[in-house]
Amino acid sequence: MAVREWVVEPYESGRHLTDAFSCGSDALDAYIRKYASQDARKRVANVFVACELGGTEVVGYYTVSATSFSKEGLPATRETKQLPRYPVPASIMGRLAVHRLVQGQRLGEYLLVDCAKRVIAASRQVAVYALVVDAKDESAKTFYRKYGFLEFVDQPMRLFIPIRTLENALGRSA
Ligand SMILES: CC(C)(COP(=O)(O)OP(=O)(O)OC[C@H]1O[C@@H](n2cnc3c(N)ncnc32)[C@H](O)[C@@H]1OP(=O)(O)O)[C@@H](O)C(=O)NCCC(=O)NCCS
Question: What is the mean pLDDT of the chain?
Fold first, then answer.
């Protein structure tokens, strides 16, 4: 099978084609088709889409925004105990979806790594302790756990990974 080449770039409505996007979740399909451009315009979420090299048909996407959380929601470890009592800064990948036709070809992983690299780069300017994700179901949770995400103790569908862990996994050049 030919190796596919993906390009990940900021979503531009009018250029990127989303009408045929179908990932198995109606809510995630509706989001990219109808609501993504509004969120991007309002600056409440940045939306990044994957297309095949040279194409404009969207085959995957994620959103990323700023957030914060209380350290009380994290598992108590030596590191998390040392976090401040005030809100801990974080980035959240609110949505992640891959078109059914290309699921299982590592695009989900590619998008997750792309998001992690952008958050690492941003964290050099504005401090970010962790990348947070919201899993829509147990299967999505299993996907994120594979990459080292840990559950919040007070929100079982919310997971996080410290930026330092991502930097160590992806290399300082990420
Ligand atoms: C979950 C999703 C993003 C994964 O994308 P994908 O491109 O199909 O996954 P990849 O090919 O990158 O898989 C990478 C690894 O994760 C595993 N994996 C993929 N989907 C998984 C799932 N739903 N549950 C558990 N593991 C999963 C793969 O088996 C692979 O494991 P391996 O390293 O042992 O081979 C995609 O299936 C999707 O869009 N699903 C519907 C929406 C959704 O659930 N979004 C999740 C965020 S809430």
Answer: 95
